[in-house]
Fold this protein.
Amino acid sequence: MVPDTIIQLLRICGLIVLLCGITLGEESPVNTTTPDKSEQSFVVEGPNAALRVKFEDLELRQRLGLDKLPVDVEQQLPQRLKTLDGKVIRIKGEMFPPPTESGLTAFAFQKYVSLTSFGRPVHADEKIGVRMREGVTTDYIQSRQFDVVGKLTIKPRVRNKELMYLHVIEDAVVIDQ
């Protein structure tokens, strides 16, 4: 059994590699014949027939070639993302630490919370606002991934002329296995 400290160090090293863009060995050339993701379909999963979505499916900055998303990004959304608006999805990620630890009716959700530990800002396309189903609450789930199922809405939230959130999952339930 590997001690928790070693596991934590391996995670940190992996994140540093990811954040710095370090590649091991030779770089492979860009494959220009890969089909556009909008041509691929999402897998239906679970008893509520949710579409399995990954955070990579929602990220726009790289796809649009931007460092920061403009406030009016809704006008530039690719068709693949537009098709998800209003659909029930299932997505895996981590809960950003909330102000209280129990009885949560809403929380911020992102692929890896540990990315924010390095001081890098989390962009609007890398996080999702989650609002729980009426009458349902959840407790803080610390430092591990779990699934959220609910209706994805493209709903830009702007604060001080800066895009804070692009997506919201409403009527959500947490699936913590």
Observations:
- The two ends are 21 Å apart (CA to CA).
- The first helix runs from residue 4 to 20.
- Strands lie at 44-45, 50-53, 88-95, 106-110, 127-132, 146-159, 162-175.
